[in-house]
Design a protein that fits this description.
The chain is 16% helix and 29% strand. It is an alpha+beta fold. The chain has one domain. Strands 1, 2, 3, 6, 7, 10, 11 and 12 form an 8-stranded mixed sheet that branches.
Length: 343
Amino acid sequence: MTGPHAHRPTARRHRQAGFSLVELMVALTLGLIIVGGVISIFVTNQQAFRTTEALSRLQENARVSFELMSREIRQAGGNPCGTRLVSNVLKTNDWSTNWELGTVIGYDQARATPMAPFPSSIPPATGSRVVGTDALLVLGDSLAIGPGIVSHTPAATPPAITLNGTNGALAAGTIALICDSNSGVIAEVSGVSGTNTLTFNTTGTTPGNCSTNFGPGGCAAPSTKTFASNGFVSPLSAGLWYIGNNGRGGNSLYRRGRLTIDEVAEGVINMQIQYLLRNVATGVPATNWVDADPLANWSTAAPDQVVALRFRMTLRTINRVGTDQNQLEREVVYIVNLRNRLQ
C-alpha cells in the first residue's frame, strides 16, 4: 500500500521462554525432597507390613500349637465310655502303647525321649529334639469317637466285634481301645470281616495279642469279658510333643505319632512344662506346680496323678523384623486340665 496512510512493517522482538539455572535447581531440589518423602513413607509402610505380618504369623503359630496340643492333652487317659478301668492284652508294648506306664509322661530338659533323640551331628538331623527343651508323651483314644458296638462274641473263632457302621480307620494291625461303661481294653485288630466286623486272635507278633479275654487283668491274669452294645471301638492315640530342629536352621513344634512325625508350627524355639498333682486317695490337689524330673511315678496306678499342665512357650519370628534388625520373640503361658482326672 502506498500513500500517506501506508503502514510500515513493525519489527517484533520475541522474548525466548524457559527456565533459568536457579529455577531449574530449585525445581530439582523440590522434586528430590518429594521423591525422598514418598520413598521414606513406602519403606516405613513396608517395614510396618512385614512386622505386622510376622507378628500375626507368630500369634497364629502360638494359637495352633496350643489348640492342637490342648485338644489331645485333655483326652489323655480318656475314652468315649468314661471308664477308668483299662487293661492291656498286647504281647509287647512300646512307648506308644504302654498304657500302664502312664498316659501322661513328662520329660525335662536333659531327659531323653523315645523316638526323638537329641542331635548327634552338626548340623542337627531334621526332627531331632532341641537340647534344653521339655517334651510330653500323651496316650488316649483318638479325638473322634469310633463306631459303636452292636455285638461282641468272644467264643467265636476267631472272636469278633460287630460295629454299627463301617470299620473306617480300624484296619487289620490297628491298636484299638475298646470300651463300654464298665471297662476297656487295648488290643490289636487281627482282621476285618466284611465292612463292619473286627476279629481278634493271638497270632502275630507285631505286637499281637496275648489273649482274646478282654476283661480286667490284662496279660498277667486274663479274664472273660463281653462288651455291651453301648460300647465303642476307636484307634489308640499316642503323641509325643517336643521342640525339634526343622532342617531350615530353626526350631519347630513337632508331634510324633506311632507311625508318623509332623511339624506342627514353625518358630517355636522353647517349651517348658510344669505339672499340678492331686492325691487319688484324698482328692486334694497340690498347691504348687512341679517339674517332670521329681515325678518318678507316672503310672495309671500312682498315688499322685497329674490333673493339669502349665506350658511356657517361646516363639520367634522367622524374619528379622525388629527395630534392631533382629528377630522378635514372644513368650506365652497356657494351662490345660485333664478332663477325666478332674471328675
